[in-house]
Amino acid sequence: MNDFESIGILPVFTKRLALRSITRPTAVQRLAIPPLLEGKSAVFRSATGTGKTLAFLLPAIQGLPQGRDGSYRGPEVLVCAPTLELCSQIKNEADLLLGPDGTAGLLIGSVSLNRQIEGLRKGKPRIAVGNPGRLLLLAKMGRLSFRDLRFLVLDEADRLTAPECREETAELSRAIARETARGNPGSLTVAACSATVSPRTGEHLRPLLDEAALLETDEQEILRERIEHWAIFSEGRRKAKTLASFLAAAKPKKTLVFTGRAYDAGKTVTTLQQRKIAAAGLFSGMDKGERKAALERFRTGKADVLVSSDLAARGLDIPGISHVVALDLSESPEAYIHRAGRTGRAGNRGIMVCIGDEIEMRRLAALEKKLGITVYPKELYGGRICVPEPEDPPA
């Protein structure tokens, strides 16, 4: 028996997973799928790269009723995620699981609103994936109904309740709670997930998550076992040049670079390109076409380096990222977990590199203790990455 079948997944879906060489559920999938299949709401937390997307999509899609009565009031499964790229990834995963049975509707900003309205009218998607702003707008226009909703997913729930998304997410949550209470009272299953879910996240989603169980795996497991952590000192004004020197020395296969601000991301891309390094950028201010083109260049290997702000790269699942580089470092363990989690995925190993000044090195030392990881100091010398020589003790 396929291991997925042992936790309740039907053969039709295990066969589709097997075509992608996915035959064994991960720890978070074993934890989350059975209760969700039973219709129990859950908040689950697990490290980035552990398979959370399948953990909610499999029970959501398997739970769709067979056949329809001909009427259509709206989707039965709704997935809400904070970024356009993450929504697109989830939609593609849903389409693969659905097979010939249909496609998911993609409802995101920066896409023609009229085209999406027409897609809902003609396509009648049973599954919809979107960001909170666009979902809320369509609901207010009366073009998106939640009356038939049976399964709701809030992916990257901590980001959905962060200041930049909080108001829209809260309003959307209230609208869903009201409509489902009228259309299918007591029948809505809610799955909220992220690598980091704080008590504050639950407070903001209270209208939907009052009775949800909290399911957790060891969120630091991948950080400790599959990812090696390096620290390279650099003065702030020299960070981009230090990054270029690091890339020349390490020759990584595929590198994702994080900056705190979109402006810094753009400057870093320019510096790397001036040094003949194939780099692309992903940050606010770019239109949808530019963002898509940058991601495509990185995915296909035409760009070896993608420089991104945190929000733009939220939830990205790009195979083969060997190195993640942070050009700034906050004091937040959650931010570090999300950044590092872009590598070391699907059983592979990866390297997380922090290039920082003296203040950031002190922050990294504090994070090292909080997260239970080991950070190895490195330095660049003669075109190579070296272990720093120990300092002589004072005489």
In the sheet with the most strands, the strands line up as 10-11-9-12-13-8-14-15
Helix content: 40-55%
Q: How many E-type strands?
A: 15
**What is the average per-residue confidence, as pLDDT, rounded to a whole number?**
87
**First-residue to last-residue Cα separation:** 69 Å
Describe the structure.
By secondary structure, the protein is of the alpha/beta class. It has two domains: 3-216, P-loop containing nucleotide triphosphate hydrolases (Rossmann fold); 221-382, 3-Layer(aba) Sandwich (Rossmann fold). Helices cover 42% and strands 18% of the residues. It has 17 helices and 15 strands.
Compose a concise summary of this entry.
This protein has 17 helices and 15 strands. With 395 residues, the chain is of the alpha/beta class.
Topology of this structure?
Blueprint: H1 3-6, H2 11-18, H3 27-37, E1 42-45, H4 52-62, E2 77-80, H5 84-98, E3 105-107, H6 113-123, E4 127-130, H7 132-140, E5 151-155, H8 157-160, H9 166-183, E6 189-194, H10 199-204, H11 206-209, E7 213-216, H12 221-225, E8 227-233, H13 239-250, E9 255-259, H14 262-274, E10 279-282, H15 288-300, E11 305-309, E12 323-326, H16 333-340, E13 350-356, H17 358-371, E14 375-381, E15 384-386
